[in-house]
Amino acid sequence: xxxxxxxxxxxxxxxxxxxxxxxxRRGHPVAVFGRAAGAVERVLWRDHRGWGALHAxxxxxxxxxxxxxxxxxxxxxxxxxxxxxxxxxxxxxxxTSLAREARVIGRALEAGDVDAARARLPHLCGRDPQAxxxxxxxxxxxxxxxxxxxxxxxxxxxWGAVAGVPGLLGFRAVNTLDAxxxxxxxxxxxxGWASARLxxxxxxxxxxxxxxxxxxxxxxxxxxxxxxxxxxxKHPSPNAxxxxxxxxxxxxxxxxxxxSYAGRVEHRPVxxxxxxxxxxxxxxxxxxxxQRVGWLALGVSVxxxxxxxxxxx
Length: 313
Known about the structure:
mainly alpha; two-stranded antiparallel sheet; 2 strands; 5% strand; globular
């Protein structure tokens, strides 16, 4: 069976598996990778960019190598190859868990239980929930849904289309490393620099595809494109900017502004200044848009892989 069809069948099965099963409560492969990366960090950590780069190469390279070995082990069996691709896709995407967490917070806000929403917010993002009122929590959820649609779904499918199982595992490894060490705390300012830059590079194509699909699938395509063009570059992240701006324009809301991480206050530019303030119902709207974008990304990734293979055959 051609590699393009293996990816098509396997990726569809994996995304369907995520829809039906979500993430496992225990023993998630990404959590296993995180523990392994933490063990490597304990050995390698120095307050130096070079050691951080070595950490990124060892961990991300190890994930890619593992995927390559697994692919070679099943290459003579089309069924096993599809199963491996499906399992890898299921392991690295997280659209269902993203939607579930966002909806839990949305239901708490709808019930007027702001304290419950604050308690649940850390399951979704790193914001300081005590500094947020109901609308601030809703805005944090919509921004997290937008960014994680790219990180947890679209980006993985893009790299799966490019490089199969090694691409799927490599992208998730890079994204996980960024979450672990890629922030600008005193410990990781230098050590996590390489992981953060690698994540920016790996996330670039998925973020742009996410923004395009948000415009296509959202209720206001023109608003999404306008916000992307005018406001994305204002965001400090080269990849979160296009995604959040496109979601803001598509949903007709304003994102960005003042936020707090672990007591550190940031004043970010407002995205889609023509929009209204985020309200609680926008949580569910953002989740539905995220889900549409995820399935469209599967179609685009599969089609691109099939076309690319057709041209080289």
